[in-house]
C-alpha cells in the first residue's frame, strides 16, 4: 500500500482526546485524526517523529490524519482501520501462506449480532466459507506483539462469535496484523485484558485458526511482509 497523497513529516506533541493527536508541521501546530482507540502510551511520546496526511477535502476541524510514528528505531502504523486493507492486499498476493487456499469473497460480513471483516472462499471447494476477523496490533515488547493494549469487550465478543461459528460446524480465523516490523510472535495481552486472553484460549481449543502477520513500514508505503506465529 503506497501512501497517496504522500505523507508529511511532523513532530508529535500531545493527545488532547482519544481520537486527536496534536502535532507540529513545520512551525504550525495542527490537530490530526488519530484513528486508533488503543492507549499507545509507549508510542505517543512528546517529541517523537511522526508522519501525517493532509485531507483538505474533509469537512470539519480535523483535516489531517496521524499515520506513522517513530518508536525504538522503527516506524509504526497508527491507523488501525488500514489493517483490513493491508490484509486483503496480502491475501490477494499470497503473502499469508496459512490462507493460500482461500480467496476474498466479500468484506464486512453480517453474522450474529455483529459482523466479521471478511468471508473467504476455498479455491477448490467453493462450498467452504471461512469467516475472518482482523485485529490491528501496535504494542510490541521484547519482539513479542501483544493484543490488546487496552481492554476490549468488542474484541472478546468477536472471538467468542468465531468460536460459536466453528462449534456449529463452520470455519473461522482470527488474524493479528502487526503494524510494525519488530515482532517475531503475537500473544494475547493477558495482564491488560484477561477476558480477551480467555476468549482466545477457548477459540483455539474449539478449532478457530489463530494467525498473525507483521508489516514493513516506511513513510512511503506499508505492506504485509510475512506470517509469524501466535503463542498462547
Textual characterization of the structure:
- This protein is an alpha+beta fold.
- It is 17% helix and 44% strand.
- The protein has three helices and 15 strands.
- The strands form three sheets. The protein has a six-stranded antiparallel beta sheet, with no helix packed on it. A six-stranded mixed beta sheet has the order 7-8-9-12-14-15, with helices on both faces. A three-stranded mixed beta sheet has the order 10-11-13.
- A hairpin with a 6-residue loop joins strand 8 and strand 9.
- The two termini are 30 Å apart.
Secondary structure layout:
Layout: E1 8-17, E2 20-25, E3 28-33, E4 49-54, E5 64-71, E6 74-77, H1 82-92, E7 102-111, E8 114-122, E9 129-137, E10 139-141, E11 144-147, H2 153-167, E12 171-178, E13 185-188, H3 194-206, E14 209-217, E15 222-228
Parallel strand pairs: 9-12, 11-13, 12-14
Antiparallel strand pairs: 1-2, 1-4, 2-3, 4-5, 5-6, 7-8, 8-9, 10-11, 14-15
Helix pairs in contact: 2-3
